[in-house]
Amino acid sequence: MWSETMETMYDIIKKGVCRKYDIFFQHDQRTGEIKMVTIKEIARECNVSPTTVSNILNGRPNVGEETKKRVLEVVRKRGYQPNYIARGLRIQKTRMIGIIVEDLVQFSTAGVVDGIMEQCEKLGYRTIVQNLRLYSRWSDAWFDDENAYYSILNPALQEVRQIQADGVIYVAGHERYIRCFPEDFSLPAVMSYAYEKSGTIPSVVLDDERGGYEITRYLISMGHQKIGVIAGKEDNIHTQKRLLGYQRALYEEKLFFNPDVVCYGKWKRESGYQMTGKLLEAGVSAIFCMADQMAGGVYDYLEEHGLKAGKDLAVVGFDNQDMAEYFSPPLTTMKLPLREIGKKAAEILLTELEGEEKQTQENEIKISCSLVVRGSVMKVDREEP
Fold it and tell me: Binning pLDDT at 50, 70 and 90, where does residue 57 land?
């Protein structure tokens, strides 16, 4: 139905109809049929001029309240939707932004998308979301399968072109280096929550290194010197950068970095549980978990062995997922700046589209996390060297 409607619409545009008046879609709820109507037809039904209808629909002043109510009621009852594509073709701008997300089920995605939408709304842009559903389709198996990835991505990029979007923002499910935009992709684009491999497209990402640094500094400020780490996969960018921050904090305090108290897992609760015993045997007084889910596994282990977070062992997480504040005691963690990443990505794209002068900036824009202090870290006396 969509492709047929698009073809018919383009035929009308080619004939020059759009030069006379705007086209609208009417969705017949009874038959499911999509019909195209015009502002002229709406004006005739309301007994007003097409100019008056156009002014009302575009929010322009100097229209009487009674007339405005009458026109909007007809529009509402008949289910009209403005055809921004046709209007955009006429003025060479649709004020639509395509958002391509790897999967809406990823906990980080909703916040990023909401930030994008908020920023677009402020400047009068509409958004269209394409959900690739990569994790829902294949879990993690698609990471190393380029054919599978591009079989889903390329049609989505093509649809963004077809709807005449002014630009596109890609929202990754987790940070890594991605080449998702082909070299001949002509639309302005921004990458969010990942790094674009080409280096020519702006990427807005977490400052993972600073996050790892700040949460380790907090543990040190509470007297902890032997700090174990339960990390994600060893080749993961989040893992590598957070570990760099952890090492830098230790170095600044002249504390020894012991690789034996760094354990790698799979970001799951089970990993936290499995690694806790080893770290306790190594004599750590605190554990830095690189995900709140893994911190949940640490809590499970402690409870099973008659121990308690914040009393017998300091535990911190990363992500500030909803579960963190319901742990007992509530978990100290790093809050991800998801909405801020989305807003910044949209700001960069819209600045380009609005023709504003760009501020000099790197193509990698890092947004800082923030420390959320709760009750899972006890203060201890610092050992003298």
Answer: confident
